[in-house]
Amino acid sequence: MKRLKLLALFLFSALALQVSAQQKKYVMVIHGGAGTILKKNMSPEKEAAYIAALTKALNAGYAEIKAGKSSLDAVEATIHVLENDPHFNAGKGAVFTHDGRNELDAAIMDGKTLMAGSVAGVTTIKNPISAARAVMEKSEHVIMVGAGADQFAKEVGLKIVDPKYFWTKERWDGLKQAIKEDSTKAVLDHGSKKSELFGIKNHDYKFGTVGCVALDQAGNLAAGTSTGGMTNKKYGRVGDAPIIGAGTYCNNETAGISCTGWGEFYIRNVVAKTISDLMEYKGLSVAEASKIALDKVGKMGGDGGLIALDKKGNMTMPFNTEGMYRGAITADGKIEVSIYK
Amino acid sequence: MKRLKLLALFLFSALALQVSAQQKKYVMVIHGGAGTILKKNMSPEKEAAYIAALTKALNAGYAEIKAGKSSLDAVEATIHVLENDPHFNAGKGAVFTHDGRNELDAAIMDGKTLMAGSVAGVTTIKNPISAARAVMEKSEHVIMVGAGADQFAKEVGLKIVDPKYFWTKERWDGLKQAIKEDSTKAVLDHGSKKSELFGIKNHDYKFGTVGCVALDQAGNLAAGTSTGGMTNKKYGRVGDAPIIGAGTYCNNETAGISCTGWGEFYIRNVVAKTISDLMEYKGLSVAEASKIALDKVGKMGGDGGLIALDKKGNMTMPFNTEGMYRGAITADGKIEVSIYK
Question: What is the interface pTM, i.e. ipTM, of the complex?
């Protein structure tokens, strides 16, 4: 009798675990950037606006998935919402370069075919993630940069805007503040060649990206990332977002990954591909692999976060900053959105 | 007695193997591009010129290593020779874009620190590999593109040239031929959106890169790659050469790698980092890991080659094209140069 009870308990537990695992099958995960995001610095209105935007973005992509569309469609629809919202450093909310321009980068990758597309330093494309997708689907290439990429987007019929579209008062004030802080810093630091040339000392100027990984009903993964880059950046600097393997990577056999943070460290560590390879070559879970890759960034002195989703619907959203705008949605439509640690 | 003989034979064999391994400690390996390179299409003069150039390049880097300089110095010196030689599609010998411009890309990475630098789409820098190194050493960034990268190179004192410096008759004729072939092709193929936009059908237009991996006396690896890109390319296309993890990667714990070939496939497969990860996470040799990574490119329909050198001086130079300009030099100065299969 005791044995029967134990067996019943075991079966019940196994069933409960299975149900729990089923309940936790995620179909989409998103981020809106990582950095020094502290509750004490956030107004209730702003916090509510971020939560609403993340929720809206998740719902937009989820609608595609529920309708049987591809994970690429879901990623594009989700990132459109984030690009069109001035709260995020991508699309409409892009930060300014030192010269007062908005230079946008984006990448997308299809986990089924390993096709990928990316654009960097574009200035007239309303939704850079769609340009990245057009590069992937309508050209032989993977990466296009600068005016050539803008021209391509125009020729394939994407929505082109006057660069003024990207002007927002908050980002413009951010540039002025950054220039002021940097010039002060440059005086203090004038012995250093690096700070003379760059002087980008306010750590959070490095941050701000949006990203999405989706898993569709056919079991295919897609990942995308879009960013306005770094406030006050010079010299045509490009970060990790448009670099396949660094800020963006996707493979049905492992996971889809989108990173956000101090891009230079993500490039040097080829973070997204490292996660995929740790899964493929060492058999690690998506969470274990992501932790190891992010720890490498941290040990080098870099920071940020990432989102990753595997083909079974397991997801992880680690970060080593104070906060990361993030969210996920399960197969049955349950939304989870968070900002702080 | 028989057992003693066997033991002696065994010891002798082990010693011989060790000597052989010592003799085969490579300190540098280079490539000058892969593609449809057939002996029947090569004049003796041209063949001799390529062999002389590869030998000169190897000697230039070897002199740095013998003098106790860093592997970065060796890579830079070697690639200068190849960039300054019009035979190779890098620097002086760069091919033309569709608009009749020369847009150059380069990357360098330090295996000791995992620092990296790269430039893409530059038009006035005589030696793009030096610009990549300056980005690595004199900026906070890893990647700079376009006019901003040219400006940075000028500000840090690199040799700036009029874009006309890169004009060569052979490459100009190559562009005219490519445009002619592509327009013919476009007529035949007019139903396809892709070929309308691109029409780059001559396969070998995709090729041409130079690269170097060096191992210095302190045991540090460095890798670099430089290219003039793809003949008749449009829309600011960037290939794998300046992408850390794709065409260029270096890590003292694994290997230094430089790739050449159909860049899009190298980007999608993140080839260089894949080789490093196969060594780190699966314990494969540099040759085994390189073969697997190149096979992935081949299975997808891409082609090209790569060079890789590990910290013990083991090197590999696989390619799946008809030929690859390549060479290596051992610690004791023995040079090996090859072109065909």
Answer: 0.90
